[in-house]
Specification:
Layout: H1 9-14, H2 18-62, H3 65-73, H4 81-98, H5 103-125, H6 129-157, H7 166-235
Helix pairs in contact: 2-6, 2-7, 3-4, 4-5, 4-7, 5-7, 6-7
Length: about 240
């Protein structure tokens, strides 16, 4: 091998074939976008978990549903995911109660409103996770395509060489293998982030579902109390 041959990463990239360079450029762009989504999703999940903890403590310690609802609807108050679910359920419950609907209709209306809001919130938390999953599963194959193409070019170049040696083929193969390395560099963080955030969001979804059921029990007791008072008022 020529002692002056530069096998640095930058030199290998700049001397790679056009197709291999396009593959590397695509993978680098995809990697930058995935890292942007990774950090953005990290902040979103962290905020959702913190806001959920805060509202759960406030909900179970305060007990005044009207005051909680007024805080949730205040323009100066920044609401979290769980608080928006509570707001949707209590708003629908209050509206139907004002229309003097029966107790089961009150609870069913609140349940539908909270589940619809919960689904929208989960969809928002899961945004861009599909992109991370795609990057994690496809990037290694894209890098492998660039590697195969580079190796093909290297062996085609040997056709014009009278004596093939390791020194003549090593630079071309090294250039090709860079594409696979970049593909793995893009894929591994995306796979790790996808698995972590999918697990965190599933745990949040379970907490949201548990809160909905517990809050519906409270609303059901409230509806039963209202019905009892209404019957007492009519008998008196």
């Amino acid at each position: 091998m020529n002692a002056t041959t530069d096998l640095s990463i930058l030199s290998l990239v700049t001397h790679a074939s056009l197709v291999a360079q396009l593959v590397m450029g695509l993978l680098l762009c995809v990697s930058f976008v995935s890292w942007y989504y990774i950090f953005g999703k990290m902040l979103a999940v962290r905020d959702a978990r913190r806001e959920t903890d805060t509202f759960e403590r406030l909900f179970w310690s305060r007990g005044d549903l009207n005051a909680l609802y007024n805080d949730a609807t205040s323009a100066r108050h920044k609401t979290g995911t769980l608080e928006r679910i509570f707001e949707a359920g209590f708003r629908d419950f209050s509206k139907l109660r004002g229309q003097r609907a029966d107790g089961q209709a009150l609870v069913d209306g609140a349940r539908r409103a909270m589940r619809a809001t919960c689904q929208r919130e989960i969809d928002q938390l899961e945004a861009h996770l599909a992109f991370l999953a795609t990057v994690g599963s496809v990037s290694p194959y894209v890098g492998l395509f660039g590697t195969v193409w580079g190796i093909m070019n290297s062996f085609r170049g040997l056709a014009n060489v009278s004596q093939a040696t390791l020194a003549s083929v090593a630079p071309g193969i090294a250039e090709a293998l860079v594409a696979t390395a970049i593909g793995l560099f893009a894929a591994i963080p995306a796979v790790v982030a996808y698995n972590r955030y999918a697990h965190d969001i599933d745990r949040l979804a379970i907490r949201f579902e548990s809160f909905i059921e517990e809050f519906l029990n409270i609303l059901q007791r409230q509806a039963a109390t209202d019905a009892s008072r209404s019957r007492d008022a009519r008998t008196n």
